[in-house]
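hey team, just a heads up i'm posting the complex here instead of the shared drive bc the drive is being weird again. everything in one block, sequence lines first with there labels, then the predicted structure for the whole assembly after. its two chains so it's a bit long, scroll down
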Amino acid sequence: MTLSEGAADARGGGAARAASAPPASSVALESFSYDDDIVRKFMVATFVWGLVGMLVGLIVALQLVLPSLDFAPWFSFGRLRPLHTNAVIFAFAGNAFFTGAYYSTQRLCKTRMFSDRMSRFHFWGWQAIIVAAAITLPMGFTQAKEYAELEWPIDIAIAIVWVVFAVNFFGTLKRRRERHLYVAIWFYIASIVTVAILHIFNNLSVPAGWFKSYPIYAGVQDAFMQWWYGHNAVAFFLTTPFLGLMYYFMPKAAERPVYSYKLSILHFWSLVFIYIWAGPHHLHYTALPEWASTLGMVFSVMLWMPSWGGMINGLLTLRGAWNKVVEDPVLKFFVVAVTAYGMSTFEGPMLSVKTVNALAHYSDWIIAHVHTGTLGWNGFMTFGMIYWLLPRLFQTKLYSKKLAEWHFWIGSFGILLYVVAVYSAGVTEGLMWRAFDSTGRLAYPDWIETVVKVIPMWWMRAVGGTLYIIGMFMFGWNILMTWRHRPAVYDVPVIQAPPLPKQYVEAPHGTRPATAFGRFVDLGWHRVWEGRWLLFTVMTIVAVAVASLFEIIPTFLIRENVPTISSVKPYTPLELAGRDLYIREGCFNCHSQMIRPFRWETERFGEYSKPGEFVYDHPFLWGSRRIGPDLAREGGKYPDLWHVRHMQDPRSITPKSIMPAYPFLLTNDLDFASIQHKVDAMAMLGVPYGQAVVAGNAPKMAMTQAAAIADTIAQQGGPRNLQHKEIVALIAYLQRLGWDATHVSAPAPVGGTP
Amino acid sequence: MPTHDNDREHLLEHNYDGIQEYDNPLPRWWVWVFWASIVFALVYSLDPWHVLRGPGRIADYNASVAAAARLHPAPSGGADAAALAALGHNPQALAAGKQTFVTTCAPCHRPDGGGLIGPNLTDDYWLHGGTLVDVHKTITDGVLDKGMPNWGKFLKPEQIDDVAVYVYYGLHGTNPPNPKAPQGVKVDRSE
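-- predicted structure starts here --
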């Protein structure tokens, strides 16, 4: 058996450290080994789910240009798009984080993981959750909150698995044989505790069945919580974990010291503290209170340098190693990853400036921004890390360095094509939506004009994505072939290190500054924190929690944030059922329900949206992207029959429409029996449902309203006997949208309120 | 070991699995830009005279609506019946009107005007007035309660004129197959 460079490095390094450990006069060395089997498992899962998630991404990209690909209810854009985002974020990036964290934490702490059984439980639990997501999302089970779509039983499973991971991780820190925690570990700590907090508080909901729930928050507050979560999912699932990986794998691969310890400290704390405030920049010009929007903007601007601190520390670590970048695909991937991180973290603050956001929000610009980050930063960080790990984990040479080089170039070219195309599409959309002609009318009043215009760019995006996926196949081939050359039995090096003494006082370094300020900037205190994992973790939680509470508490407590509109009443039982169909089909993925106070929006869609209109919206459905037009004032805009025909075949109304067809809504029977559960759950959340909560009343009320709508459709010359079908519930909901606030004196349409 | 900057850079005695760290100071430009962003954040958020933030998003919006109303006052009065009638003899206007009809009106009224979601436009029965000026007004203002959009907001004035004369002269009496049943009151044309 020939040992690879990597294995030799691991063994030699261990021996060297044992030798260089403090003179162990009285302390006996302890022997232990690292658990690399779990790292191999997570690595393979990273690749497999990465490929699946990206292929689903390609499918949804193609569905936008070829709507005939939406050929089945479970295979339509609205249900698959969340599958793509969940798969690439939680399955691909998540498993990549676990791969690197399990490998590096053991080595940085000079100990095996706290519990092998917990490691396995974490692995299999996480994969089971991914499988559950892959099954339930196409079935239409969704909470309708971006990146938090999974329904409550899966949310509970996520919380359990995450807690086991946390216990395993912190147990490892407790048992470490390295006194100080390295910066990579700081980032892992921040990620693990913050994701737990975000996940729990955004997913608080009341179940209305096994795979149906309503969040406890409504409207403005729900939107705020969701984007507090959504933005920080980007921060603490896609950014801080990968910064941790960068701090371990980049200096390892480059064999260069980290550029600046001071910069590590400052950018870590500023990033963790500032990130958590920035969520409201996803809601500029919406019904969110303006002060929250302003906070979101200024904290995003302040986030620029803390983010760039990471980029600088990464890129400057390569000083003196640039000649290696030429030869080493691992470093090439890292350089592009860190550069992409720098670009998207400049762009993020820029997009959060309100006037820029006015142009970019709802457009493809945001999609391009996200993909610079995910394809570049997360993807390439992962590829570089795994190419570096392969020889070490499989204890043999990397099968083909040349293939890895090809992967790098084809992947880079794919990213370039993808983002250039989607940026162009985004700016085109933003400009067309706001254009007026010389008579003061919208220059492109017909929504479909703005869609047709960007379709060539969407094709180019699909080409770029395909190239990136071809790179994935090369990656997979390299993994497979390297694995095939593994030794018959993996060598498990035995490492020796002395345990940490129980009592420890941080030795002063240099001379102690005289003033308090001097001691503060001297950072000796931080060295003390680094030696105490629990203190460090508590301080991280404090940083995250304080920042969160400063925004969350006023959002919930200040009454003026959501002025009441007395004409706004709860949805009728039938409308509520229709709203759940809207959620099931993922309509919110393409249609917003939030008209911003801009003349180009009010001319096109009607009166701008008010905070008081959403007080019964559990969950809020404002959306974040307009592939189709806004629906906030859809109620009463078209006759019922229009909606029947439009759902049956959107192209019969708008020939160039790219909306999926929903003919099954005309044939599926509506589940009237479940409406009582829905109404009861809503009533539990404080929605005044009055008589509708009396057992059996809700379905009866729904049937009455359904019969009236079915009559109207028949009178208008449409199909007869639709009163038991899903379509009537959806129409009831659509016809109610935006009605109450703009028809103050008129009663709600057909059926009335309960 | 580093081969450059050796005199200025100094390695800390940190060693984590072989990873070392330099004691380099924070890049000066980084510190200054960070401070600048903090100052900007304070000035922008406090901004007591609303220099940077303006009067607020709703006030901004109301101002933009008022400005647009000044710039493009709403046309007063109905359409000029004689001018419209004259347009009815202009084949170019009828052709342009037909084109607008096919793209904009056909989804609800059928390409041949026989009616589908909206009423039949080829017969003698009208829901909202059957004179040319009435048709023009219905197209311009819409019948919002019944789902007929106010096309005056979206189509240019010439387009409205053209499509009105196309409906009135081009479609009337064409007897398409399978028309929608008559709706509204019969209006006799006595020209």
